[in-house]
Specification:
alpha/beta, 10 strands, 5-stranded mixed beta sheet, globular, 2 domains, D-Maltodextrin-Binding Protein, domain 2
């Protein structure tokens, strides 16, 4: 999911193609405050994690000598990664990155980066890890390695009561809000609008109303500027909570796929990161982090390197 190839999502419209349905996969962004909302507790302390000597021994010498991991995140995708009132980057991915570092005996520095700059930054050795709700895809695995740690799909949201009577099987001519660079944005341009045109219907205006920040997508929905928004399932859940029910989910979560920690292709660090994540899953720390951010529905119990399903 940069393209944002990017965070991933695919949407097809059944009214355009009888067999098509909402099939979106994860990744997007949302800048938000750190106020707790329905099921989230940002101020909760992280679990205590000790370094694992066997895992630490897997860390490459250059990383070990530096003593820290530099982790990139697009801090605009609450509750996965976003900024609190002081500008500090927080969220599920940040907490998991911190615990991965602790398992490996390393400090962690999270740097806020535009989503589309993260994979190039990893390839250029600017960052060791990318943790920013990246969906693990075959396409991404061609250029980077990915260690799975979460499962998410794409959700749609509309204003409470669905006043515009949006039908996800027919989005032709509808005003859709998405984050810039997401696969959702690509899918509107590459799939939804062309299918609408083929069916003799109007395409999505401007191939979607695109915003740099997911929070602006949410604002566009609340204000009535747009009729439907598409984003990753945990992000839509969070937006609904943060807007005090002004929005509601439309349809089911579709296209579930794993999130992956991004590393340079062939990185010797990948086995250490995979081992650390699996250890966090096994000792219960992982689950506590997900519960802190209200995203435990996306929990998995096994982490693998390059586990893309499509």
């Amino acid at each position: 999911m940069i393209a944002r190839t990017q965070r991933t999502r695919l949407l097809a419209t059944a009214a355009v193609l009888a067999s098509a349905s909402l099939v979106l996969t994860a990744c997007g962004s949302s800048k938000s405050s750190s106020n707790s909302a329905g099921g989230t507790n940002p101020s909760a302390a992280l679990p205590t994690v000790s370094a694992d000597a066997k895992l630490a021994a897997l860390v490459p010498a250059d990383v070990k000598s530096a003593g820290k991991l530099i982790v990139a995140a697009d801090a605009s995708y609450a509750p996965n990664e976003f900024q609190d009132a002081s500008g500090k980057v927080i969220g599920m991915d940040v907490d998991l990155a911190t615990l991965i570092g602790q398992k490996l005996g390393l400090a962690v520095e999270v740097q806020n980066s535009p989503f589309t700059a993260i994979i190039p930054g990893i390839s250029a050795n600017k960052f060791q890890l990318g943790m920013s709700s990246f969906t693990d895809t075959k396409e991404r695995e061609a250029t980077v390695d990915m260690v799975t740690y979460f499962l998410a799909g794409t959700s749609a949201a509309v204003k409470k009561g669905n006043p515009d009577k949006i039908d996800l099987k027919d989005l032709c001519g509808k005003k859709i809000a998405v984050q810039t660079g997401t696969t959702q944005a690509d899918t509107i341009k590459d799939t939804i609008t062309p299918d609408c045109v083929k069916a003799g219907k109007p395409g999505v205006p401007n191939d979607g109303d695109k915003f740099d920040l997911q929070t602006d997508v949410t604002t566009a929905m609340v204000s009535g500027r747009d009729q439907v928004m598409l984003a990753d399932s945990p992000v839509v859940d969070y937006a609904i909570k943060q807007t005090n029910g002004q929005l509601e989910q439309l349809g089911d979560v579709e296209g579930k796929a794993p999130y992956g920690v991004v590393l340079a292709k062939g990185s010797a660090l990948a086995p250490a990161v995979q081992g650390a994540i699996q250890s966090l899953m096994d000792d219960g720390s992982y689950k506590k982090v997900l519960e802190k951010w209200g995203v435990q529905a996306g929990a998995i119990d096994k982490s693998v390197i390059n586990g893309a399903t499509s």
